[in-house]
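Model it.
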Amino acid sequence: MKRIVLIVSFVTLVGLCAGAQTYIDFHGMQIARTPTLMPDYYPEGVGLYWDSFYYVTPGIWGGEGRGFWVDPSTKHNTVAFIGGPLCNLAAVCTGSIKLYPTQIGPNINTFHPVSITVTAGWMTNHVRVMAYNNSKFVGSLYWRLTTTPQTFTFPAAWRVTQLVFTPDFVPTQSNYPKAGSMVIYSFVLMMH
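Modeled.
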């Protein structure tokens, strides 16, 4: 009987740990005076790979747009972003967040994106979000971003291994940069 209670307690504890929300921001990153590629597996222990995302510290980089907000209550507010002048203007600008379960342990195969706080870096644009679970299409969203932070929620049913973000490319836009952008301030997810 004690073994059954112990096993049930252990399974319950594993389930609760797997369902806990993880809040990700970039305040723990080093100060970056110029855009720098995001490191693999940030933050430590979460198993995420940030493909084609950069990080930078607004307020000390001379190239940021109005969507790179500086929070006066913090020492710095490093952010992650894609798009803008770092995109090849002849191609689609895309970034993705991928889960590598082998980096975080057994029984974690997917994540549920809960919410994300973002802006457009330089000018209002749209971003398409595509969700995949082991290369199988799960769903998509299309958001209008402004240079003021907004928090978007993801569908509750999404269990994914990859999110792909594609900001608009506006070749007729007279302002530089012509490529759209997305600046991430925070991201909340749950591991499953």
